[in-house]
Amino acid sequence: MAMHSRTGGQSKGRASPRQARLFLRLDLPAGVRLGPGKIRLLEEIAARGSISAAGRAMKMSYRRAWLLADDLNASFREPLITTRLGGAGGGKASLTPLGRSVIRAYRRIEQEAHRFFLKRSSALLARLRAPRGT
Prior knowledge:
Layout: E1 2-7, E2 20-28, E3 32-34, H1 36-48, H2 51-57, H3 62-75, E4 81-87, E5 90-95, H4 97-120, H5 122-126
Antiparallel strand pairs: 1-2, 2-3, 4-5
Helix pairs in contact: 1-2, 1-4, 2-3
């Protein structure tokens, strides 16, 4: 399991220079990596019913979204995402019960890690230099 703390940045989801943020990526056996990007892709697929629409929502190419979805399905004993070929309106995608449970498990781990990080990081954060420009 890799946990990274990041500070700074202006984009959505990033901490201000005065805050620390936890970035959680699980490095699982057999080279399986599960982090915020793949989890968000699963959540977007659940919300939008389409892998390509989920990719667009994440500003990701169609090919990249499909490759990540395929990697997710190949990484588990059962698929996380099911697809159905479409006609003129395009195909559909949805999460399997396992896909939904993977999201829940990751988000629980993330919440627990965040609570632990907040509890234990004060000594580390107190030793940082003041942000530049202040």
